[in-house]
Amino acid sequence: xxxxxxxxxxxxxxxxxxxxxxxxxxxxxxxxxxxxxxxxxxxxxxxxxxxxxxxxxxxxxxxxxxxx
Length: 68
Fold this sequence. Notes:
The protein has helices at residues 2-15, 18-34, 48-65. Helices cover 72% and strands 0% of the residues. It is an all-alpha fold.
C-alpha cells in the first residue's frame, strides 16, 4: 500500500487525464467491493461467480465478527 501511495499513484496522476484517473478509481472501487476479504486457496482462478459468493460470505462474517 505504501508503494502504491508514494510511487504508483503519483506517477499515474501525472501520466493520465483526470477523466481516466476517475475511471480507474471507479474500477478499483468496484473490484474492492466485489473482492473476497480472505484468501480462498481452493477457489478456481478467475471464477467470478465463486469470487462474488466468497465476497458476500466474507463480508457477512466480517460484520458478525466485528472485523469490518
